[in-house]
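Quick one - inputs below.
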Amino acid sequence: MSIPEKGSRQFREKSVTIKDIAQYLGISASSVSRALSDSFEIAQGTKVRVLEAAGYLGYKPNTLAQGLKNGKSRSVGVIIPTIDNPFFCQVINGIDSVTNSRGYHLIIAQSHGFDELEVLNLKQLTFPAIDGLLISIAAESDDLSYLKELHDKGLPIVCFDRVTDRIGTHQVVADNYYGAYEATMCLIKAGYTKIAHITTSKNVSNMAERLQGYESALNESHIEINTSYIKYCKREGKDPEEVKHALKELFAESVPPEAILTASDTITTVVLRLLHHLQYAIPQDIALIGFSNTEMADVLAPSLSTIYQPGFEMGEKAAELLIDLIKGKAVFREISKMVLRPQIFVRDSVQRKQSGNPPADMR
Amino acid sequence: MSIPEKGSRQFREKSVTIKDIAQYLGISASSVSRALSDSFEIAQGTKVRVLEAAGYLGYKPNTLAQGLKNGKSRSVGVIIPTIDNPFFCQVINGIDSVTNSRGYHLIIAQSHGFDELEVLNLKQLTFPAIDGLLISIAAESDDLSYLKELHDKGLPIVCFDRVTDRIGTHQVVADNYYGAYEATMCLIKAGYTKIAHITTSKNVSNMAERLQGYESALNESHIEINTSYIKYCKREGKDPEEVKHALKELFAESVPPEAILTASDTITTVVLRLLHHLQYAIPQDIALIGFSNTEMADVLAPSLSTIYQPGFEMGEKAAELLIDLIKGKAVFREISKMVLRPQIFVRDSVQRKQSGNPPADMR
DNA sequence: TTGAAAGCGCTAACAT
DNA sequence: ATGTTAGCGCTTTCAA
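Output:
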């Protein structure tokens, strides 16, 4: 089968412009423009006729021309660590649902962790063309200067999930403290006292909060915090070896932990995989609860206890806020911080260690 | 903390234009343009000076203006059923990796199955602005007329995963026949003869091919095809009740199946979940192998046998092809169909029923 | 209430 | 090899 001749030479049909409508109705282009933009300085009659003609002729505005004219692109940039993760997938979904309905396009860039150069390149590439930015800050990168510069220049920015206070942007986050606190409390209430925490870094906002939640729960339960029970995997689980090493160290402790709280989707999955490979029985040998948005949590055997973040909602909220910002609709004199509550699902990977009350020394 | 005054009124710094460079160097804008586009009708000296000045002044081309001028938007549309699925996530990832590096933006639209109206709306919304389209065809929608119209008008289109022959587009697909055939063969070789197949519809290309693979494997093994073992879930697993009903029917057969081949990511997950809920032991009560790209397959208990499709690669190939098409780089006189091979992972959800040879009647 | 005209930033004839 | 000019489709003064 051969392609029609015109296929090769970009022979796309010239689309209907504002001029065509003007000519068709015998009025000027500016009137058409006014009618279409629902201006108040246009007669009702003409407005109706223009709208009809537009529909009839199949007019679609050329967003490029509109953008060029008024300095807007009707697109927003999204920077996430990776799209290959159920949580961020849900976030994208949420963002998409609002940007789509509001007529904005999405330009997605992945920072893949902490490759600052790449992030910068992406910024270079896309930035003259976006009206606003949604960003989950890459990593412990101390260099927020480029971002700050953009913000100072007036680019509307909303941070979500991994945020920073060093730039005065609006924020949409999960209540990470609450999630980690409650999860740890669940473990404690189930009778565990030797609880390890595998996280990525103290320097990422959400991880720091989770660490705090973990520590607070222990403190309030009068369980001493054992720093060797806290492991940092800077590669965030992208390097399984790093996690393996952390686990090995934990199990090599003179008193090894009985339960683990994992701090991110990726780490949770990797830990689960490693525990399987190392033949640890969950929850008999080691209990596990982790931050994760996987849909498979309840299908795992044993089913996995998770802290589930409202990814879709987070994306929605962040996008709505951003678009309001772009449109200057709401006047934001204050930096807002929206905090969404995660859900805790206690499943079989955490098991009540002993029936009845928690140990006496815990009361 | 209050926002700087300028924040509210879109006071973004005017960016450096081609004119600024021209003025800075005392030459004309067109020379600058030529230098930047690496035209051959420009002196080496000026070219170098322009490039230097551009770097120094921080020039970034205004893609809107470029697009308006030459009728290109440097963006490609992607239509997928849903992004909330590991396979399509990987596809997006693959697409993104090439479009990004080639300077194209992505406009992603989800068709969410078969809601034709929505698809059409999305098309209306985005289409004047895309240079090409990557699409995994929504559903059994017989109405490909809009798509065909676009194609006829010269819009470069590449179909992937779920394709159609009714429009002469290039295609990038997985070898669905092979995947289903091999998976079924695995079951047969493991000693199963009563094998059910849960799919979505005969009218979707990839599903039809999988069904054929399944049937061929049975045929070649001289196992009679039992049509009541083949269940269609038109909602593709989005409605668990439908799948539940299918399963109930299967198990109510006078001779119920011993193994199931599931035809899509979503269906596989739902079936797995239902089997758990219904307390069927895998693989003792029922063996399972399914199309799935989940990363959790090996972490499940029992680990899940899967047919894994090369999603990332599929996205890459489709995007490369599309951009070549857009650029008119390669001259495609023939419709191409690229077929990628899926991987089969036989894990614990399929177990050799009896040691030694398959039953005598199968040889 | 409407039209004419200018211009957003860039490119591509056409001229020199 | 370079400059001049016009125009992509749209919006928005400014005049009428």
